[in-house]
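hiii, so i know i said id send this last week but things got crazy w the move. better late than never?? heres the sequnce for the chain we talked about at the cafe, plus the structure i predicted for it. fair warning i was half asleep when i ran it
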Amino acid sequence: MGLIDDARRVAAEFEYTAQDVNQGVKEFIRQMDEGLQETGKSMSQIPTYVTAVPNGTEKGVYLAVDLGGTNFRVCSIKLNGDTTFSLTQSKVAIPRELMNAKTSQELFSFLAQQIGSFLKTHHNDHFEEYHQRRAAGESVTNEHFFQLGFTFSFPVEQIGINKGYLIRWTKGFDIADAIGKDVCGLLQAEIDALHLPVRVAALVNDTVGTLMARSYTSPGKTGTLLGAIFGTGTNGAYVEKLDKVTKLKKMENNAAFDGSTGKMVVNTEWGSFDNQMTVLPNTPYDDALDKESNNPGIQMFEKRVSGMFLGELLRRAIMAMTRDGKTELFKDEPSGTNDMRSTYTVPDDSPLYRQWGIDTSFLSIAHGDQSVGYRTTRQALSKDLGVDAASSEDAEAIKIIAEAIGRRSARLSAVAIGAVIISTGNLTLTAGDALDEREKALMEEEMVDIGVDGSLVEHYPGFEQYIREALREIEGIGMKGEKRIRIGIAKDGSGVGAALIALVAGGQED
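okay and structure toks below
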């Protein structure tokens, strides 16, 4: 058996058939429903208390802040009311000593100071007017305050649109006295101490922000159904019927929310779909990756879909082939097509031998390589992995396996998208026979709008096409339904999206 045949054999292990896709959709819907009814299930299905999405006509200036790791970003977003907006922002590094401060007050005071500096620089007239009114003893109303959306990318138990208790720190932060406290309240207390005209209106998940940002900028008449991230990680947030979120009635300490819309945005946390491995595909490479990860048995869907893991799957597949004495990968003599040097080896310090040694960007290069003799892939093998003088046959073998891994990721992504569309009934007529034929035709033509963000869906070759191919295979969507699904990029969920959630939250207070 030749090298290319060996590569195709490995690629076949990543095959994800139409039958697999449909089984996946059915189980995904079942786990969605389970998560809506009870807490602690595989799919968390977290209520966000956001009960409306924008339609592009909203106007005003709103603030957003994003504490996502080692940087803190402050933005102001001017919504123009015509699906367009302008954004002003600043970013500052979090001093290392504050990441491990003795008290949470030290960190949140620093964050409030950055908000104050931003207002003085970019909104000084508003800032001065507010303080003049206070000094003169004049009344200060809600309209004198900026509504702020707070993207806080750490695990929290959210119990209201602007209330959530910190569960634990990650990403190098460790401030013990913040655990179990309301992070919005901590920030608001320090904002108030500085007498800033700012109200923390919403605690924001960046995936929910993606949904909101897309819904504002979407060209369609209907709001966006789903915001999805397909990048380093993967997650989705969608608009659900409020009466299906039955676990809300069982949850303690729930804050009040506006139920008049009959809807609520739900954060699926779908990276943990099917941790039980009921329907998810599995290969020896998936299995080894999981066992040697820092969270075995967790985020099993994400480990097959997201950019963080695809490169490692390819690395393990390559290493399995090189360890198999029967394959010709990276062996000069049998390949016979090496036109760069007469002999070569994979050096001992090659990233191929290190866990996480291959970045997903390498898959993109190999997958999309149309150069003569796969020269682009061979150059990447040399530059990124230290594999000098790889043959065109070696590069073609890598490309075949990379394509299979990327295609499976996209087809699994279609399972999540398709399940949300079918579960919410957005492709079916719900008004029944009361509609005349013209109205039915109009309803059938309504697009289902999906907002997406992340490096895979933006930059991976053919990722959306692979998603659409799988959507056409799903029972209940098919060729006709897939044409009604509009997928568009939604940028900056933690900025624009957070500001839009603050807008919606402000409306709920009113």
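btw Confidence is low (pLDDT under 50) at residues 334-338. thought thatd interest u
miss u guys!!
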